[in-house]
Amino acid sequence: MPVPTSSTAQAPLPAFWLRDNCPCEQCRDPRNGQKLFQITDLPEDLALAASTEQDGHLEVLWSDGHRSRYPLAWLSAGHRGDARTEQDKRHWQGADFAAGIPEARWADYLADPAERAAVLRAVQRLGFAVLREVPAVERQVLAVAGTFGYVRETNYGELFDVRVEPDPNNLAFTSVAIAPHTDNPYRDPVPTLQLLHCLENAAVGGDSGLVDGFRAAELLRSEAPGDFAVLTRTLVPFVFRDRVTELRADRPLIETDPLGRIREVRFNNRSIGTLRLPAAELEAFYAAYRRFAAITLRPELQLEFRLDRGDCLIFDNVRLLHARTAFEQDGSRHLQGCYADLDSLASTLAVLDRQNAVLDGLQELFEGAGAEEYLGEAVTQAGHMLQAAVLAQRSGAPDHLVAAALLHDVGHFFDADSHRAVTGKELMAGHDNRHSHTGADWLARWFGPQVTEPVRLHVAAKRYLCAVEPQYRAGLSAASEFTLGVQGGPMTPAQAAEFAALPGAEDAVAVRRWDDRAKETDAATPPFEHFRPLLAALLAPLAVNGQPGKAS
Amino acid sequence: MPVPTSSTAQAPLPAFWLRDNCPCEQCRDPRNGQKLFQITDLPEDLALAASTEQDGHLEVLWSDGHRSRYPLAWLSAGHRGDARTEQDKRHWQGADFAAGIPEARWADYLADPAERAAVLRAVQRLGFAVLREVPAVERQVLAVAGTFGYVRETNYGELFDVRVEPDPNNLAFTSVAIAPHTDNPYRDPVPTLQLLHCLENAAVGGDSGLVDGFRAAELLRSEAPGDFAVLTRTLVPFVFRDRVTELRADRPLIETDPLGRIREVRFNNRSIGTLRLPAAELEAFYAAYRRFAAITLRPELQLEFRLDRGDCLIFDNVRLLHARTAFEQDGSRHLQGCYADLDSLASTLAVLDRQNAVLDGLQELFEGAGAEEYLGEAVTQAGHMLQAAVLAQRSGAPDHLVAAALLHDVGHFFDADSHRAVTGKELMAGHDNRHSHTGADWLARWFGPQVTEPVRLHVAAKRYLCAVEPQYRAGLSAASEFTLGVQGGPMTPAQAAEFAALPGAEDAVAVRRWDDRAKETDAATPPFEHFRPLLAALLAPLAVNGQPGKAS
């Protein structure tokens, strides 16, 4: 037997690591990847009894009798991290955005998952993005946060107002600049995201400024490593205290992870309380702090832009420092802001990336394998499904049924086990009489039951219609009549009654009828791309809805 | 000139530290303690030009001309921290609660600020507390969280249900135990508090278990320091992934602060993803992890108790591991849970402590200085104020006016500058004609304007009434007639009109009339304690209301 080794170091794979990662359904919930056992459930003397490589898998028999099967590709896969440290960020200075800052129109952000992913990726990688043409109405900022995460309520409420009112007695009134800072360092956990939505900006001046705090920290590390070390080690007492609040957090200005990578920056002189340290440490801290503060003010690090009515800035509050330039001339300025967190944004982005990959994959299927012949019918597979979708759309069907019609035969493309394409010949030979289930199961990884269940039942619907409508069977194509046998023949009256009682039965029958009619030789159909926005809208965008239950 | 030194180390006080802590109103917002300057605003060559000690203060003239004045007591004060690391916790094992767990009745928790502080302090110091007799209605858990903080919404929603339904087909149905774990380690920031509210528990078994994760980590450190170090250094990829979510956080199982103190524990085998490390590091991690896991299961560390209908458990989710014992017999069990954060809980506790200290201080005043004679009247100061409060209460006045009546002369106890008690003789000598303002300003540190403004205006109300009601002046006591002159005499008609237009004028007049009547020689009054719950309820309990505005 081959001695399994880890791909990175040619040492034997540690038994507990390997077993802890067993992907079988006994060990891991297939719905959410959560393990179903505790590490202490494994025997102390756990060992590999036997292992073999076969079919691209490492198969292991364990000393306790359990069997595991690992894809070799998994063994050598890399780590996908949480993208929270400096190594996963693109550090920047002001001039890097000479050609423009990351931005998108609100309408495009809502309609196009690729645009939405681009905006969220900018926040993750660059630390910020601006949405333009967001409706300039009160509380809209909460809706923006809701597109990727959850509002973090604080003692300032769900949202806060940043307002400068003109002073009618003093037209030359100049509101002071606000130096670059992060918000709420006295909170722990500190809000990791901030949103600022401009409802009005009639002021001259009062522009928004951003500084990449990771870049500033990196500069400090390279220019004065000792000062960098002091700021990562010194616990700074951040405090906010008023009549009804007393928030305290003792955290370093620059937080590094156990590998020494910059992870969070807190910078806000206003809320630094009194450090109580020996004098020499105070001297060292204030020297390092002043040096770091001076770096954050370097002109080349500043990015300035104007937020106008309808603009919404989203930024990383544990990385970027934000600022406001002085008002040169009077005028109302009103922003509404709220806090949210990076973890949900990253989750939304990851799901959007998966969903965009699914749409890309479906498009490839329609343009590749789907362009092949369809069971001896006079249309291609893709042509057939596109026709079905067009028929659904023309009949005024809701979007989820158009999607079900479009995707009803997608199971034909996959073998249930290997996910390899199934040829029409194999189906004709009776190999796949469960393509409706294969397709529905595959689709259920991204779509809800409104889409998947009509797909799952569309073959049963044929057997049902053959049982309850004699004229329906007479109208079947020759190929469809042939596969009816493979599929189980017409339902018995008892089966038909049971089917009709299923929640999705009516939708499945509708899909079935479009399916049957979608075999015109020369029907003009739009390309798959036409349906892409409709499919995109049906992909669940955030986790609150459709969550089957809490996993702790 | 004396060379100022820090009290801990007899070295000269660092100039930037001292200046950064200047308490003057130019440097620091008196409402919230936030600094009004940036560290970079200070000159590079900042130095002390001169300093003297006088009147218990260090007075400093700076090289840039600024003057600062520091109480000597402040110079030698200790650090008040954020109470988040092991040093601020009472570590425990199960037997420590043989006499009972920290708990309170919901009604007492709501009514009594001291009880409320005790519960929150238990969560902060021990990691948990149980509220009993909480109304067993859906969504009530959100109201519990709202008494000390803000609900952290996640992909599970605002709240989540933990339900085990009886299986009518299998009465012997046994639901499995859930091993001790922390929740949501794949989230970052992880929710630092969890609440579990029992709506129903008809099951036999299914008890709740808690383990002090800091204690477990401490044991690991003392028994196997190398393993402890491995767990603080190794970034564990926590993952939760389903159709609509993909949360990832790379964090150590045991997080220490820059001083090496245990700060957070994450422990959840279910959501540990695949570590990608050299084989030797994987071996070391799994050995340390298994040792730590075994410690968390030691019988002496387990605390088990039952949550019954109406019980709400609040616990620290970055310290305590929670568990559920197996069900021995079937029965419905339904909990509702939500997440919140420790920082707001600590803030609420700090404010409650301040408020309880204020009530204690007022009680001392009423029982001490207040028991002295009142300006030659036939009652004591305390007797006078208690009578006024009783009159207000008998007239059906709202609580805030009863409080204003009770506290209307509290300014007599303080000299505006020194806060030392002012004697009746001094007042008679015309020393304090502003006691209403002194009192209102002092009260405004804890009470809202509904209480403070009638106090502020009650002397003006006398001058107003003398102006608009001739018979009112005729009824004044001799002492009151005397002080009328000190206070400015009756208002002019213009002054009276201006006064009547003030928002609090009517309330102030009401307080004034009780004030005037509250001079009975032998009126029976309840002690100060009688009014304490009423005052407690008027002290702002949380930060959302009454916040003047956001400070970043």
TrEMBL record, chains A, B:
List the Pfam families: GBBH-like_N, HD, TauD
- Highest taxon in the source lineage: Bacteria
Q: Which CDD domains match?
A: CAS_like
Which ranges carry the HD domain?
384-452
SUPFAM superfamilies per record: Clavaminate synthase-like (SSF51197)
* Signal peptide region: none
Please list the residue ranges annotated as the TauD/TfdA-like domain: 107-339
Q: Which cofactor does it need?
A: Fe(2+)
Please report the stretch or stretches of sequence annotated as the Gamma-butyrobetaine hydroxylase-like N-terminal domain.
10-75
Keyword terms: Dioxygenase, Iron, Metal-binding, Oxidoreductase
* Assigned protein family: Belongs to the gamma-BBH/TMLD family.
The name on file for this protein is: Gamma-butyrobetaine dioxygenase
Name the source organism: Kitasatospora nipponensis
